[in-house]
Amino acid sequence: MASSLMVVLPLLLLVVCPYAAVSYPAGTCRYTRLFSLGDSLTDTGNFASLSPNRSVLAFPYGETFFRRPTGRFCDGRLIVDFIAEALKLPLSTPFLLGKTAEDFRAGANLAVSGATALSQQLFRDMGLDLTILPPYSLDVQLEWLKRVLHMLAPTGPERQDIMSSSLFLLGEIGINDYNHPFFQNRSFTAQIRPLLPKVIKKIENATKVLIGLGAKTIVVPGVIPMGCVPRYLTIFQSNDPGDYDAAGCIRWLNDFAEEHNRALRHMLDHIRPRDPTVAVVVYADYYGAILEITRSPQKHGFRKDVALTACCGDGGPHNSGKLIACSATSILCPDPSRHISWDGIHLTEAAYQFVARGVLDGPYAAPSMLSKCRR
Ligand SMILES: *[C@@H]1O[C@H](CO)[C@@H](O)[C@H](O)[C@H]1NC(C)=O
Ligand SMILES: *[C@@H]1O[C@H](CO)[C@@H](O)[C@H](O)[C@H]1NC(C)=O
Ligand SMILES: *[C@@H]1O[C@H](CO)[C@@H](O)[C@H](O)[C@H]1NC(C)=O
């Protein structure tokens, strides 16, 4: 019974991802901790702890699952929460909310909403308004990780044990490197697109740093389809039907997201250790998962008429106008579980759950994270 699964799953993965066929080392399915880095797709409270007056700490954030705002830019749980749940791990403490080793026994969430892969200084040099661009880029989050590791295990061998038995979710990170300049009217061709190779280099460095620290399982997600995001649909609306694909998403923005993801996968294929006992590096295809529910919403329990409309927002065709986040005075949908977009930028818990399942069980990860657990 188990052996047939073992044969079928790797074959499926080869079809999905012919260039990145890797397998897990035997018997390493159970993790003791989860460490995550990234931005608001993964932040479970760091950003909110820095700015207690932000709307993310008010209704209706958290209304579906926690029944109170938690600092997550969502109506409920994020992908990282679903992954922890599936692996039977407690939710890890946001770095800025923990103090002692005990707080980080289950790992740490180092992600900060608004964070970029590249340093904040680079965006300062571009002349951007930094109000919602925190100085906690990928390199800073890696330094936080080192501090947590030092707290958990002052000696080398202890730290090795922790690194090898933990799961690392490296991202999603990078979309804010594009979002911030896009939202501040910067030129795509002259200023935004040239950032792409630098962003990939930063993620490459972070992956190598984690492997160097002894991480054995690293999941690196790509960016989401930006052309299907309500806020982008509002900002870059066009009268030319040729600018849109069959699902109503903006082609050139999705092409750009795909370009980022191709470069990311190519980089990972290049640096992934040949020997999976050294480290397994998984690419998580958030893009493919979200495109699937956007193109076939009804098949997955979402409403077709609002597939490109925020559940909570300030009106307009996509219910997403100028405001960055939604609030108690926003136009709120009756049932977030049938929407893909929560607040015009971030996704609903229902959408995150679909992505998480696709990463855990396949086909939206190569290899799928749980395939090695089924024996
Ligand atoms: C947060 O809000 C409270 C009350 O609404 C106000 O007194 C305080 O000055 C605000 N803090 C910041 C940092 O804006
Ligand atoms: C790589 O990451 C580390 C953080 O651990 C940082 O100190 C270093 O500057 C980074 N190098 C590059 C080239 O980005
Ligand atoms: C961006 O440009 C639009 C229209 O040209 C303008 O309405 C808006 O205020 C600008 N935003 C910023 C942040 O400069």
UniProtKB/TrEMBL annotation:
Signal peptide as annotated in the record: 1-21
InterPro entries named in the record: GDSL, SGNH_hydro_sf, SGNH_plant_lipase-like
Alphabetized GO MF terms: hydrolase activity, acting on ester bonds
Keyword entries, A-Z: Glycoprotein, Hydrolase, Signal
Domain of life: Eukaryota
Pfam families (UniProt xref): Lipase_GDSL (PF00657)
PANTHER family noted in UniProt: GDSL-LIKE LIPASE_ACYLHYDROLASE FAMILY PROTEIN, EXPRESSED, ZINC FINGER FYVE DOMAIN CONTAINING PROTEIN
Family per record: Belongs to the 'GDSL' lipolytic enzyme family.
Record-given protein name: GDSL esterase/lipase
